[in-house]
Sequence to fold (215 residues):
Amino acid sequence: MNVTSEILDLLMDTPEAFKILEKAQDMLRNEQKKREEFYNWVTDDLKVEFINGEIIVHSPVKSSHAQASENLFRILSIYALKHQLGRVTHEKVMARFTRNDYEPDVMFFSKEKADSIQPNQSLFPVPDFVIEVLSDSTAERDRGVKFRDYEAHQVSEYWLVDVENQTVEQFVIKNGQYELIKKTDEGFIHCSVLKGLDLPVEFLTNKNNLSLYRK
Fold:
């Protein structure tokens, strides 16, 4: 039984179900007003997200985190462009979900979604593939609310890159839920969404400061 079913079962067993729903609807309406204000407030120079009614402003990342996400963006962009698969974005690009707005480290949009994005568009659709590089301040959200939201919106593939522990976790949607395909600190990760793309784990985790430009 998933979380949604459990919540619904609890609600239907409660005599105050209608009152609870009315209160929840009022709270969500107020939250959406705050969300609209957030859109008017946010600027291009901030890495910021709107999560369950809260505005989350991110601190600057460590060099190892930045290098890992930049490496991923470059190689995925080159691969997607070469094979005309879609569009890859990096850092301060905001994806709009039903309730929340996220700025993942790396996102991939299939060609159909990418072609629908307009030049002046600032809120992007739900991506097909997300990579988050973990940090002390974001790991709980990356493994918690984001994991559940990405799963609920059927983001096909989700990678968690842990630079500190040199591991990569690969989750793929199967039967509507994320299944852990691999968690490893060695070998290769075979991308499910970008067919044919195999990446060494040491490159993904920036082991020994690897980069695309190292000779």
